[in-house]
Design a protein that fits this description.
Helices cover about 45% and strands about 15% of the residues. The protein is of the alpha/beta class. It has one domain (about 10-190, about 225-250): NAD(P)-binding Rossmann-like Domain (Rossmann fold). The protein has a seven-stranded parallel sheet, with helices on both faces. Strand 1, helix 1 (about 20-30) and strand 2 form a beta-alpha-beta unit.
Length: about 260
């Protein structure tokens, strides 16, 4: 029996894949045999990510894109499909956060977060569907958050967007099952990335409490999400859809 986790010959598009969680997932997909397209707006980070994937022996490209802009997303998916000849996997990872109390957000900041985290998923998912339908199958992995489950005083718009990501994941899973497309969400716990290090430095006591509450006793690393992503991107998960799976070292299960 062939390896159900083998992604050889498959093409993956990872938005926000040039660093942090996105790159950890991109690396895992590449190690499983996939061709990987990194989508991001930082040219230098894109180039570095592609070089690291190529050093693993993977076929990799970078595409500069604004995933909250419909025309940019259309151009991105067209370029990936042209370079790889197909798109089999979408990892909708791109996102931002702005931390402040709810009453201090400007309306423009609200829209910025919602567009980057939620509208981008809507646009990217719809953009890859034609390629999935042509192939007769497809996999979408969305990236939620612990804030898909919990609230937080200074992450209102972010939490709203990440809760909606999970609900939209479920809706896509139901709508596109007829196209043999599986759609699942990963809910990362507290992961050590460039984006979270600033918060850890500014509020060390709060982040120490996170470790105390986490049964694994540590922060996660981007590579901790790779195995789950490979599973959800492979035929090993063909009968799993509409799920939201925490990858949090047990944070969400401990009182």
């Amino acid at each position: 029996m062939s390896n159900p986790f083998d992604l050889t010959g498959r093409a993956a598009l990872v938005t926000g894949g040039n660093g942090g969680i996105g790159f950890g997932i991109a690396r895992g997909l590449a190690e499983a045999g996939a061709m990987v397209a990194i989508a991001g707006r930082n040219t230098a980070k894109n180039s570095k990510a592609v070089a690291e994937l190529e050093a693993l022996g993977a076929k990799a490209i970078a595409v500069e894109a604004d995933v909250s802009d419909e025309a940019s997303v259309a151009a991105m998916t067209s370029q990936v499909a042209e370079r790889f000849g197909r798109i089999d996997i979408l990892v909708a990872n791109a996102g931002i956060n702005i931390r402040k109390p709810p009453e201090d957000y400007a309306l423009a900041e609200w829209h910025q977060i919602i567009n980057a985290n939620l509208t981008s998923l809507f646009l990217c998912a719809n953009a890859v569907l034609p390629a999935f339908r042509a192939a007769g199958a497809g996999k979408i992995i969305t990236i939620g958050s612990m804030s898909s489950i919990f609230g937080g005083a200074i992450i209102g718009p972010y939490a709203a967007s990440k809760g909606a990501v999970v609900q939209f994941t479920r809706s896509l899973a139901v709508a596109w099952a007829k196209h043999n497309v599986q759609v699942n969400s990963i809910l990362p716990g507290f992961i050590d990335t460039d984006l979270t290090r600033g918060g850890r430095q500014s509020a060390p006591e709060m982040f120490a409490r996170i470790v105390e509450r986490t049964p694994a006793g540590r922060w996660g690393q981007p590579e901790d999400l790779a195995g789950l992503a490979v599973f959800l991107a492979s035929r090993a998960s063909d009968f799993i859809t509409g799920t939201a799976i925490p990858a949090d070292g047990g944070y969400s299960i401990q009182l």
